[in-house]
Amino acid sequence: MNPLRLVITVLWGFFGLRKGQEHMRDLQAVRPVPLILTGVALAAGLVLLLVSLAHWAVTHA
Q1: Phi and psi (nearest 5°) for 18?
Q2: What is the pLDDT of residues 2-15, one digit of tens each?
Q3: What is the rounded CA–CA span in Å between residue 46 and residue 29?
Q4: Residue ranges of the chain with pLDDT lower than 70?
């Protein structure tokens, strides 16, 4: 699967919004390991972004 498509699939999963046909197509085309690794990487990136934003807000307040 295309890495960009994998990232988009994970991001839609974070929001919980998927169309039925696209969801079924993704389930058939995606292998579990890359999907899990992409999800963990994006979740870690989100946490780092939020921590950095909080750190910046506290130091500049």
Answers
A1: -145, 140
A2: 899 899 889 988 88
A3: 26
A4: none
Residues 6+ apart with CB under 8 A from 2: none
Contact of 1 with 37, CB cutoff 8 Å: no
Report d(CA 55, CA 10) in Å as an integer: 27
- 3-state DSSP assignment of residue 23: helix
- Predicted TM-score of the model (pTM): 0.81
Q: What angle do CA 44, 29, 41 make, to 5 degrees?
A: 5
| Residue 44, C-beta contacts closer than 8 angstroms, at least 6 positions apart | none
Cβ-contact 22, 46 below 8 angstroms:
no
Give me the phi and psi of 30, to 5 degrees please: -95, 135
